[in-house]
Design goal:
6-stranded parallel beta sheet; Dehydratase; Rossmann fold; 11 strands; transferase; alpha/beta; 3-stranded antiparallel beta sheet; 2 domains
Amino acid sequence: MTESVSAEADPTRPLAGVRVVEISSFVAVPLAGMTLTQLGADVLRVDPIGGAADYHRWPLTESGDSIYWAGLNKGKRSLAVDMRAEQGQQLVAQLIADCGVFITNVAGRQWHSYDTLRAVRPDLIQVEVSGRADGGTAVDYTVNAAIGFPLVTGPAELAEPVNHVLPAWDVTCGVYTALSVVTALRHRDATGRGQHITIPLENVALATAGNLSLLTEAMVNGTSRQRIGNAVYGTYGQNFTSRDGVAFMVVALTNRHFRDLTALTGTTEAVAALADAVGADFSGEGDRYRHREALSGLFADWFSAHTGAEIGAALSASSVLWERYQSFADTAADAKVTANPMFTELDQPRVGRYLAAGLPVSIDGTYPAAQPAPALGENSATVLSEWLSLDGGQIDALFAAGVVA
């Protein structure tokens, strides 16, 4: 870990000088800690000896190391400690009190509760992620099932729920956690007081569903969103397949988009005739959505008559919003990764050399680059020395007693 520099010296590290202790597993809080690291904070992930529940999560390398764990812990320090032992608990509590910022999704431990730690560090900032607001447990996939999204995902004719592969609420919750730390730091600078912030994963999903009108629609109109396959609700969007089997997603949000789509598919007159026949006004998104199946039938003939290359060239010359469907392997080899300044080559011990994403935010034209994830417990000795000013004898005694590893 490089030595912290001031924000004035490096504007891409506005949180330089901030220290954070993280006790976590899985997605939300590890993502928050990594985001804070990429903004310049010195983040220490504390794990039990042997690793937390996510230390061996798939995907794995051939040697059994977790690519997943390395991906969400880039740039952090790592301390492995026996948190079941009283001495280990005291050590971690001392580290938290020393740095004054603590993020976690591990609830129910009195020794690192906000009230306990605040007694030692009155201006403590502590952000806790939980499953539910009532204290119940939940994960992204169970929260998603309870909100309603799996029942509107998938083909219209499908009767069973479809879970999305993206843990959207974990990711969103991680960003909210990082944002909460930043705002709490500002509050502490202004008032001298810390804050206890709790973020239930379920509330993040509920707020998003409400903000996107999915819940409000049911409350106000008495209707519930239905499955529409790959169409886009309230406007025109649909997937098409080329003559040589290339799949495309096409979206026409504006009148210009729609006019260009009808022009390039040679359906301008047919679309006008359809509008007359059904009494529709396709200058409005609503009618384009209501009659999406008939419109898609007209457009599909052009897509099926052309190759993927021909379609890509025609769409690129228009204002229509579009993309080819790609696999993760396709994307990894695409210029949007290989020529993207957000990605830099990273030599990750135990995983290999690859292009790793840094912070997805450009600061004064620069993307903060990814840094390697530590090995479990890699920084145990240096953290105890630098953060707690323990001498070599004291550190050796902790290792000998099995308190740290």
